[in-house]
Amino acid sequence: MTNFELPGTSLMQTYFETLGFHPEQRNGEAHFYKYASVEEEYKTLTQGVGCRLLPSALLELHGKDTLDFLHRITTSDLKSLPVNQFKKTIFTNEKGRILDRVSVLNFGEKQLLVGNCGTQKKLFLWIQRYVIMDDVKVVNANEQYAVFEIFGPQAKSFMTLLCGEQCKELNNNEIRLLTVEDFSFYAIPNTGDLKSEGKGSFFVIALHPFAVRLVQYALQNKGIFDFGLIGEDAYEIYRIEKGIPAEKELNDLFNPHEAKLLDEVSFTKGCYIGQEVIARLATYDKVQKFLCGFLFSDSPKLDKDFVLVDDELNEIGLITSSVYSISMQKTIGLGYLKKAFILENKILKAIGKNSKQEISVRVHSIPFKE
């Protein structure tokens, strides 16, 4: 069994530090939270084209049994995933709860898993737990690759400026190798959470030396485009406005039904871990709560996480993420609510998990719209 090794400082991180940017420690995790002001970065995201270094969990798998193995332990049908295509799938535990939501990239001789931030060790150990006689080897790939998201209304045009005809007409699940000058990288369309963005949103995966070259090239050749680096603070506003679930919404407190991710669950393939529970919830209509949005009556001072209660103070849901929306000029949040209470504009009481502050919130559809 290969031991899990924590990644050191990556070449990409070192490069950003030479530009004067430094990762900030929050809640035990170090990320690039801002490169400029949050307001500037948000404007770039909503009016131009942003480039975000994803703080992803990256695992590289080798072995002739890898796709069959992943097919047997995750929710999607992966057995026949073609080479140079990708598919989203969910690792679930025996209770059908979410361990992580990942993209599986099939490069033929190897497969790359791109998961949420901070889940590398958890996924690594989970995979190792179920590898028995299978020809599957897994290693941490964060030191080898960097993953970027290129998004915003100008993203498609900007990618065409950088790469020419190479990035046009990417098929929904295609992985395409693009070359600029003397370096290459992979581009895939974002077909998951930003469906409204169509083919104008991309994920880019590159070896760290080429990732540095790509960012340098983009900054030097942005032309008339409003192109900029996007930190986690601005992205958090953007993702909650778009209704995109992240680590706080995708964990072992919730299942794929509740997270509204059934597009990434196969109900026709054979057994996988958690399959019986997920199938039974669908068959007998037993799903009790769903992901939805919340609009705060006032800006909370201390908490970002809240418990939702009814008039008798019975718990009916959770607000898992909240942020002040620049465009709406109100605090908004994502969370889970019992389905009996999911009525547009319904007023509920929220209690801060730590401060016990009480505040009124209104149920809101996602994505948020003014």
Concise summary:
This protein has helices at residues 11-18, 38-47, 66-73, 120-130, 155-163, 208-220, 232-242, 275-283; strands at residues 24-26, 29-31, 49-53, 57-62, 85-92, 98-106, 111-115, 137-140, 145-151, 176-180, 183-189, 202-207, 227-229, 289-296, 306-309, 315-325, 330-338, 347-352, 358-364. By secondary structure, the chain is an alpha+beta fold.
Which short descriptors sum up this protein?
single chain, about 375 residues, alpha+beta, Gyrase A, domain 2, Elongation Factor Tu (Ef-tu), domain 3, 2 domains, six-stranded mixed β-sheet, six-stranded antiparallel beta barrel, 19 strands, about 30% strand
Q: How would you explain this protein's 3D organization?
A:
The chain is of the alpha+beta class. It has two domains: about 10-240, Gyrase A, domain 2 (2-Layer Sandwich); about 290-370, Beta Barrel (Elongation Factor Tu (Ef-tu), domain 3). About 20% of the residues lie in helices and about 30% in strands. It contains eight helices and 19 strands. A six-stranded mixed sheet has the order 10-11-12-9-3-13, with helices on both faces. A six-stranded antiparallel β-barrel has the order 14-17-16-15-18-19. A hairpin with a 2-residue loop joins strand 1 (about 25) and strand 2. The chain starts with 10 loop residues before the first helix and ends in a 6-residue tail after the last strand.
